[in-house]
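Quick one, T. Sequence first:
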Amino acid sequence: MITKPFSPRDIFAQPVVNSSRVFLSPQRYIQGPGVIKNCGLYLSLINAKHVGVLASKRGFSAEAENVLQSLNEAGIEYSKAEFRGECSKEEVERHTNDLMSAKPDCILAVGGGKLVDAGKCIAYRLNCQVGIIPTLASNDAPCSSISVLYTVDGVKDVVEYFPQNPAFVIVDTEVIVNASERYLVAGIGDAMATWYEARVCEDNPVGSNLVGCRPTLAASAISEKCAQTLFEYGVSAAENVRNNQNSDSVERVVEANTLLSGIGFESGGLALAHPLANSYTEITRLNKKYLHGEMVAMGTLAQLAMENSEDLEKVTKFFIDIGLPVNLEQLSMHPLEQFEIDKVIDAAFKNPLIQRMKFEVTRDLILQSIKKADDLGTSFVKQYGDEAYKRLHD
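C-alpha cells:
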C-alpha cells in the first residue's frame, strides 16, 4: 500500500519556475448513450483481471448493476465496496483496507463527484489504475488526477494529487439525462469557472496550472471552448434534461462539464473562483443545501467583479437563465451577516491559488468583490426574475 503523498510539483516544477508547459488528461474518454454497458470491454484495454467497484447503496441497484453485468460478461472478477457519502480520510482508508486483500488491477468509481474523488484516492493507495463512471454531470472531477477530501462534516480538508490521470472516463448520457436537471446546471456552474480562471493563469506571466507549470495553448483553447459551449447550448441542454431527453445540446454540455472543464482546470489553472467556492464550505449549512458547482458560480461572479470584467453582466444573466445562484440570498447568506462572510474570506485568503491573480488580493478586495457581485445579482434578479432558480431549489 502507498502511504506517501504524491506532489506533482516535485516532478514538473523544477528549478526554472514556470518555464515548462505541462498538459494532463485522462488516457481515454468515452461518452454516449448506453456506453456503461461496454465497460467490461473497455477494461480489456488494460488487461484487468480483478476490479474493485465503488458505488453507493443506491448505485449498486441502479447504474452499477449494468457495470457488474458487463464485468461478468467479460469474465472479469470484482469486489464490491459501498460508499457512504463523504470523501473523507476515514472513508478512503476503510475501503483501502477492505479491498487490499483482493489486489485489484483497477478501481471502478461509479457515482457522483465525491465518490469519484474517493475512488482515485483508493486506487492510489492500492497502487492500481482507476476508471471513472460518473452518474452525474455536476462537476469536473472525473478526468483529473486530483481529489478533494472533506471532513466527516463536509468541510474541505485537503487536496490530494496522483501520478496518473484515470485510465478511462466513461460517461453514459442515458444515465445523465435521467438525473435531476439541478445536477447538470451545477456542473455548468463548475465548468464556467474554467475559462475565467485559466485565462488569468495564461495572462499572468507568473501564473501556473495545478502542477506548478505554465499552461499550454491547448489547455487555454480547451478552457475557452468550454465556456463558448456552455453559453451556446447550456439553456437548451438544461431544458432537455428537465424532460429526461437526450440531444446534441446535452451531449455537448456534458462533454464541456466533464472533459473540457476537467482538462481545463487541471492543465489551465485556478485563480479566485474555486478558492472562494471551497471557502463557502466553512458554513456548515451550505454543505447540506448546495452543490459544489453552485458555490463555484458565486466564486466566479466575485472573481469577475474583482477583475472589473466586461463579462460579469453576461455571466450573471446566463446564470439567472439556467438557475444558478447570483447573490448571497440565493446561497442562504445575507450581505449583513459579516461574521459568516469574514469566515469565508479568511479561508479564501489562506489559499495560495488566489496569488494567480495579476494583482495583490487583500481581504478587503475579496469583500468588495463579493458585495459587488451580490449587488449586481440582486439587481438582475429584480429585472429578469428568478424562475429558473426557484424551479431547481423550491
